[in-house]
Records
---
Amino acid sequence: MTTKKILNFLDRRDLADGPCLVVDLEIVRKTYRALQRSLPQTRIHYAVKANPAPEILELLVGLGASFDVASVAEVNMVLEAGAAACDISYGNTIKKERDIAQAYRMGVRQFAVDCPAEVEKIARAAPGSQVFCRLLTDGAGAEWPLSRKFGCDPYVAICVMHLARQRGLDPCGLSFHVGSQQTDPAAWQRSLEQAAKVVQTLADEGVLIRCLNLGGGFPARYLSDVPGPGDYGREIRRALRAHFGNALPDTVIEPGRGLVGNAGTIRSEVVLISSKSPGDPLQWVYLDIGKFGGLAETMDEAIRYPLTTRYGNTATVPYILAGPTCDSADVLYEQRPCRLPHNLQIGDDVLIEGTGAYTSTYASVGFNGFGPLAVHVV
Amino acid sequence: MTTKKILNFLDRRDLADGPCLVVDLEIVRKTYRALQRSLPQTRIHYAVKANPAPEILELLVGLGASFDVASVAEVNMVLEAGAAACDISYGNTIKKERDIAQAYRMGVRQFAVDCPAEVEKIARAAPGSQVFCRLLTDGAGAEWPLSRKFGCDPYVAICVMHLARQRGLDPCGLSFHVGSQQTDPAAWQRSLEQAAKVVQTLADEGVLIRCLNLGGGFPARYLSDVPGPGDYGREIRRALRAHFGNALPDTVIEPGRGLVGNAGTIRSEVVLISSKSPGDPLQWVYLDIGKFGGLAETMDEAIRYPLTTRYGNTATVPYILAGPTCDSADVLYEQRPCRLPHNLQIGDDVLIEGTGAYTSTYASVGFNGFGPLAVHVV
């Protein structure tokens, strides 16, 4: 999965000590094109939080993408990469009123909400803006846990859209999220059925929903195979036709992981290999990157990254894998150990693949004195 | 629990937008003195990873403390604060050989190990140094989960110490850790019993252990009362006498959380309060700090911080508490909701108390565009 370009970069360069993430822009470009082909009528908003590297943002601006941002800092990054403010959607439903005002001053006119209080803030701080109400979904089939943190039930959503109109906002859309690393392309079907009912109720009450934001959830390929963009596109188009017939709304998707996850590889180093006692069936392998250096998504062993070494993938044995900090919670895979070569040595490189998304910005600012993850875009 | 000095600072200062941690040095000083009084014969190594703020390190240098470090960067911080290299113990059992060499060049001569491979590294990179072998403990009674990540069983420890001597190192001590936020002062009793047996076996084989590192584990006071330093000192002294009689070894403790946890308070802001549906029994409160902004220890709701507001603690109701990012895992307390005033408002300050340890350095470098936690030491 690690591209030649990344391997060449790692071979050629005298890199600073410590782990680093290398992202291959060509993969981002190809994946963007594949998503576009799979949903040709749908606008793509890149979820900047997945990886805000300037080179990625600039590439996507060049490809005509729009952007989903979580904060004013992300608005800034996207504008600096050359995007137009009208191509930015402020998708975080949790915003300070002064951040809404700041984004509005910067030209942002699309905001996500999931409750009346947020509508009131937007009415005051970003008058006349477009509002998307996020519906609560169950996240079944997603590998990264989806809590009830975002979204509201259909009743609240209908109230929210009416309130938005009363406050002079444009209640233009609904959004939902089927859960990150969603491995079931049919997951959109359930959410679209629910969304269609809300759209119908609102239409009956005189509020016309023009756009559906279908969220993210498109998976990266980790240890297991996942369906491709074509499969997702086909299922989503089928569900749209089933629930909206010929009255298809505009649609938006917000890929993050699905767009950049497989474009990146982290190079780490084996710091130590040891046993706790002579009778232990498994050895421990300690890398120079762990939960607090960028691999936070190994929480509860949710995301299982493929690992490769110079020894190939034959003659592997199970190991417990852990990070380099003095924190006993900094263990990556223990319940389900990972397979690595039986002859792995201290000092060996381990490539952690599919790490283009949700790594560099998750890294701690300096826990245990270990600095943030270095990022190289090639 | 938030001191007048911290409250005055927060009142007086026009702070930048966003959450901040304020640490009162006076509390650090008092807690250091209390720990000293409780174990007058024991040397205190401050676990720098708990909070490496330069002002804290400088205060502790002035008080005569020694330091437990996890990385070369932490060696640097401690030296810059004015400590002598001989007062530094490199307590991380997972070290790159070049980091051991670097620390040795900087004057460090005490290193922790828990396996033969680490002894070999130290023999090559830090010849003649003192070696402490860490024993595996079960962590029963600790609120922050202690995994099997660190330490080895007695058999391996004995081999490790013999190997250290063969390699020209000084096999001078054993260490163990009873688990962070250890609420049972008797926990040291079990570990000391095990350590005493290893010391005896080694003595019989001609290796004299001169020092025991009793680790950290001393708790901060969060929502529930915890025993004070006096209780811990009494139990530890009793256990030492029980297992070592008059042949008491030198002893070291490594408090981190127990020394600085209660010295700090985070000021955060309520960004949103909402319900998912009209029938929901609980509302959600969203703060401008969460799991990725410094409150990583709310993982699995392990550490429960006290929260205070301008309304006092009367007329509270349970809320689900979450952070500001677009990550659905960024929820602080949901299984066991937290109590906050029924009339809490968007924009209110919430003080998160007992946050002097394991917050500022855990903060992500910029997840969702939210910057690291600001730290002020008063």
---
Amino acid sequence: MSIDHSFKLKRVFYGLCGLVRNLNYLDKECNSFSDTLMTNLRITLNIKLIFISLNMKAKIGIINVSDRASKGIYEDLPGKAVISTLKEYLVSEWEYEYAVIPDEQNLLEQKMIEMADEKKCCLIITTGGTGPARRDVTPEATEAVCQKMMPGFGELMRMESLKFVPTAILSRQTAGVRNQSLIINLPGKPKAIRECLDAVFPAVPYCIDLIEGPFLITDENVIKAFRPKNK
Amino acid sequence: MSIDHSFKLKRVFYGLCGLVRNLNYLDKECNSFSDTLMTNLRITLNIKLIFISLNMKAKIGIINVSDRASKGIYEDLPGKAVISTLKEYLVSEWEYEYAVIPDEQNLLEQKMIEMADEKKCCLIITTGGTGPARRDVTPEATEAVCQKMMPGFGELMRMESLKFVPTAILSRQTAGVRNQSLIINLPGKPKAIRECLDAVFPAVPYCIDLIEGPFLITDENVIKAFRPKNK
Amino acid sequence: MSIDHSFKLKRVFYGLCGLVRNLNYLDKECNSFSDTLMTNLRITLNIKLIFISLNMKAKIGIINVSDRASKGIYEDLPGKAVISTLKEYLVSEWEYEYAVIPDEQNLLEQKMIEMADEKKCCLIITTGGTGPARRDVTPEATEAVCQKMMPGFGELMRMESLKFVPTAILSRQTAGVRNQSLIINLPGKPKAIRECLDAVFPAVPYCIDLIEGPFLITDENVIKAFRPKNK
């Protein structure tokens, strides 16, 4: 799809989003509105939104932060775990940017900035580097590049991991927003990656709506995204 | 009540508070103290404290942070929800300072500073502006004006809201202390406001004791404030 | 034990640690390795590690932060509570550095730096000074001296204390890492100290492994330390 075409689709898409919002607003304000009319309008608009969002590929950045994986000593299992999980989750179209880099704060910051500002990733997921060891700097890099921190992600992921291991409190993983990108730190172990993603992903599509990113649609049989009605 | 009179009452009040603390201390140190004497002294002092606190009106600041409410597009429901909830909670006398302002960090900071330093509000409650969207800056403004942050409030409110919606982790709401004012961020939706206040308010009166504010008394049938014994 | 001797033991110890890690790695990579051989090697190495760690005394710093205790008005119960709890927990050898200081941020920072950098304490535990009152500055001092903050400790301790009192959210206690020292804030009340230590200590020995400190061994009948297998 050419850039021009995608740009036009995006404008149509946001126009429709606005219409849906206005309908919700009108619905609340005027009790005189016909219920059947409203319902029909909503269904039509939502179908169009889904149709268009399927044509707008979301870009997701995945960064495996690991000294050993970046040298090829370890196989890059965390990155593969994130990709296969997202493939299960998402039914709307998406593509990924990918990187394996060592635990160096400035390299990680550069990579996150590039994925957010140049590659326009709406979601950037890091794996590894969240522990207390000397080389673990992923949370510091995340905080350095984000304008807003989102402590609820780290709290929930630790609470979830605590069900399995008491050392979950050693993970310093966090999340934040840089411009129109949501950045989430995950642990390095494939099993813990899945547990953490399962815990927080239901809130991710709505978060990306709020930062004006693409409309992500999940497979409800795998993970149920939640979007509040009548904001 | 004139300022002079209120000031004298406040001194008497703090003197009595000190006496109660000393009694608790003596009680712990000297086993020779008569139980009945102690109990009588305590009851008398507590009755006096309650009597005096009823004469000292607590000031509570309420700030609805909302671009749309400040322009009159939306009705100011969050502010009304906070006031009606506090009316149910508190039996000691209180009055409120009120403001509706747009999501502008410097305006919000000014308003919080004014309510804390000039209006002497012991408690300042904000609603809205805690999400990840570009215009949401309430937590940033709160952190900028507070000397101490209190992460436990945000953690508990998110944990509570998670029982209802998975998007609770998107709320970045926090709390902190500026001089003798406790500042608490609440979400913007009336239903969530009540849920969050119900969760944290049991700890609020004792927190205000610790920062040397007025003695708040709650209606125990609605919400049970907790004050540890024998600190 | 002379410094030279201790230094050599430490080198042997870390060499053995490396061997155990390599064995785990080999085990994962090569399926051709004999199971029995591996198991025997592991048991031998772990016995040696335990033997050596018993000869390397861990140093633990304990700081009671309290205006009143530092003036001798109160008996130093919090410090005693920490020491007696650690005596129950640890079977590997340890000794403590001890201090009672007033709630002064710069004094507390100096003491933490001294215990971390000069006395080489692998673990520094503070008690008190974590509330919202004007003189409570322990979390601020901790954040000022640490390179990495560990929010999971404070979250879990507050969650645990919330089971007993709703005012648990007023505790701003945190934890962090300065060089090779883990610093943990505890509340000031002996009962709460035990509750908090019971909650977080299972993760402490592995955390100290990760920051390259001594190998702590707990009495599993009292508290079960957790170390993940096959990192």
